[in-house]
# Entry
Amino acid sequence: MRIAVVGKGGSGKTTTSAVVARVLGRRGLSVVALDCDSNPNLGISLGVGDQETERLVAMRQALDEGDEEHAPEWDELIDRFGSDAPDGVRLAVVSRIENPDPGCPCCGLSPEQLLSSADFGDAIVLADLEAGIGTLTRLQDATIDAVLIVVEPTPKSIEVGSRAYGLVRDKAVGRVVVVANRIRNDEDLDRVRQAFPDAEIVAVPDDPAIVAADRSGVAALDRTADAPAVLALIGVAERLLPVAS
Amino acid sequence: MGRPGRLRVAFVGKGGAGKSAIAGTFARLLAREGHEVLAIDSDPMPGLAFSLGVAQSDAGIPDDAVVERVEGEEGPRFRLRPDLDASAAVEAYANVGPDGVRFLQFGKLTGHVAQLMRSQHAFRQIVEELPDDRWSVVGDLPGGTRQPFFGWADFAEVVLVVAEPTAKSWLSAKRLTRLAREDGTAANLLLVVNKAREAGDARLVAEMTGLTVAAVVPWDEDLAEAERRGRPPIDDAPNSGAVRAVASLVADLTGGT
# Structure
């Protein structure tokens, strides 16, 4: 089961990815969270802290500069360039690097190639993609089972989300859920509904608890698990459970 | 350094940090100071057009404005047609927006890779070859750390790193700062703290990034509302604290020239 999370930068992809990954982990599922962003921040939202997140980035950079050894297999990639996050989630940074060694799983495979070709076994793979739709355009058909499109009720964010929606509709993706984030009122939700009339939409309220968690660099799930936005994101994870299990 | 009356800046930062809203407002205010402003969006995803109030356009630089290098010749693979120089290309392909701001977009990410390459070469050529004595340039670079630098911010005398007081945002700013220093292009790198909510926010982000603060833009409900409506902050929230903070930034950066 492979789930991709897409959207405009700042729309809430990483927060969504982190809550969903950890909730699935809590249900006893084996979860691999792949940070596919060239500006990787998933570690922060998962709750491993800024120093560990920076260490993972530095490892990727050392690999890029030839100072770090390559990983021969994808699971070693996760061991070597990854970290253990709470709730049993295994996190790895797999963003494309600038000087790849072709065919090498840890660097010569782009996130989209890795998603297409690696056998992740029973694990649920949650891929937090780079902002925009670049990775999605390069993903082959049928390499993902579900896509979460995260949008804010702004024209800029909806524009990116709509293009992502068009792309995933063209590809044979099993399930598409639009996560309408930072919703303050009916007007906000209507903006999203009008842009995605046929989509399955989950509303996530605008919530100071997310702002507070972001500010202190900790996981929203650890800081305020009962905040309305966190509860809504837990609901997103639960919607995916029937297909996940 | 810039001659009097001209200023070239680029905005970088994490996606969602507020680059476009600030860049659009900055461009409009600079134009009101009498500058001839070219606002450029080098992100294939739209953003700056909304904040400027320019009609959204699918067109980047049309294919027929670009010619392929003849085999055996030196130089980049694609160039503007010989009868087009940078100024002529701006006149021909930039949209004119409110306050006379010219707006040039890199082009949307829907075309073929080959088309994008043509557009990309032309776009960079225009920015590189703009006459020194004319255009002020406000660049809105793509979010994240992939594209900024690697030549995309070469035109800028000042690179403004936009960061919110959040861990993800200042880590991104730190990475951008490191890239800029490695790249060696951005001599003048300054911090714009955006969505500041508490007194200590500016100092916190400055400490975390090691950058000098050029402006502190407060969290502003009116600006957020303008963004939701897809309207330029300068038109819909002209008296907001956020727009006033950008106005002081413009004054500070033009004051010395």
In short: The CA atoms of residues 158 and 194 of chain A lie 10 Å apart. The two ends of chain A are 9 Å apart (CA to CA). Residues 228-244 of chain A form the longest helix (17 residues). Chain A has a mean pLDDT of 90.
